[in-house]
Amino acid sequence: MSAVDITFYINAAIAIYAGWRVFVTDSMVRASFFLLISFLAVGVIMLLLAAVYLGVALFFMMAVEMMVMALFMVMFMMNPAGLNPMKMVHQEKVAIAAGVVAFAALSAVAVFGEFPSRTIPEGWQPVVSLGHELLGDSMLVFESAGVTLLATMIAVVMLTSHRGRYGDANHGSRPPGLEPGGDPADKPEETEEGGHHHHHHHH
Amino acid sequence: MTLPTLLIVSAALIGIGIYGTLSQQSFVMLMMGLELILNGAMLAAVSFWALTAAGAPEGQLLTIIAMAVMAIEMAMGFALVVAVYRAKQADTTEALDGLKH
After folding, report:
1. Residue ranges of the domains in chain A?
2. Domains of chain B with bracketed CATH
3. From the candidates B7, B19, B82, B96, which should be mutated to test the interface with A, based on the most A CB atoms within 10 A?
4. What is the mean predicted confidence (pLDDT) over A106-115?
5. Which residue in A has a C-alpha nearest to residue B65's C-alpha?
6. Where does the record locate the signal sequence feature (chain B) (predicted)?
């Protein structure tokens, strides 16, 4: 067994084990880090397969993405720090059955399917060929992905900013007072109560 | 490191991802299941590219598209989670059992 094979089996085991731990760990932050480990192990396997650019891109992308994920996990976490056991599942038997069936079916395809064996030729430069493909024949596909990402950014801002459908972005917010409990620094006092102009609002 | 072993690893990742997607109640955990499915799909695509396609660059392009899909899924997923939380104070799928109209 060669060093490449040993590295592959170790990383395959890490990828699957970490992927499984994502759904059984008690802390959602830990779950996002387990997912990061799973992605990094897959990235190493991609490097072993000579997909240098994709493996490294996966490292960078996942390192950042999982940090954002961990931040959201903290925001939406039911169970801070994983101090209590967490098992928030529904229809678990159906889900386990579906997962096992999918694994069995795809594995059957992998074992019994007949695929041609055409490995990467000697002296082939995967990154160079990918670059020529991206900025050559498949430029339309590549640019479409870029435009789709731009549309996603606009849609995300539209969905998450408070303006428009849900009212102004700063509606209901109140800047901090100049002194504790005092008037805000930049807003004039509301005048809906006429003469009570110097009344201090304590919300 | 043969094609069947690589595909079995990706099948395992996809299977775990399907379990997580179908079983988790929290939106963010559900999205981690989707990510795991895409992880397995990308591994399978790279495996086919390296071992059956003689290095045809379209195989790598497919993986890049899968990465773009993953980024879009993450961004839109988090945006929807924030929007739903803002509208209904909900962060689990059970809390959304009715449409508005």
Report:
1. 1-80, 128-171
2. 3-95 (1.10.287.3510)
3. B19
4. 92
5. A145
6. none
Region A132-144: what's the mean pLDDT?
Answer: 92
Bridge partner list, B92: B26
Residues composing chain A: 203
A135 at interface of B, judged by CB pairs closer than 8 A: no
β-bridge partners, A89:
B24
Contact B8, A8 (CB under 8 A): no
The verdict on a CB contact (< 8 Å) between B9 and A118 is no
- Percent of chain B exceeding pLDDT 90 equals 57
- State whether residue B50 sits within 8 Å of chain A by CB: yes
**For the CA atoms of chain B, what is the radius of gyration?**
17
- The answer to ipTM > 0.90 is yes
- The pLDDT, as a whole number, for residue A199 is 47
CA distance A52 to A124: 12
User: Best mutation site among B31, B47, B48, B64 for testing chain A: the one with the most A CBs within 10 Å?
Assistant: B64
Q: How far apart are CA A49 and CA A203, in angstroms?
A: 62
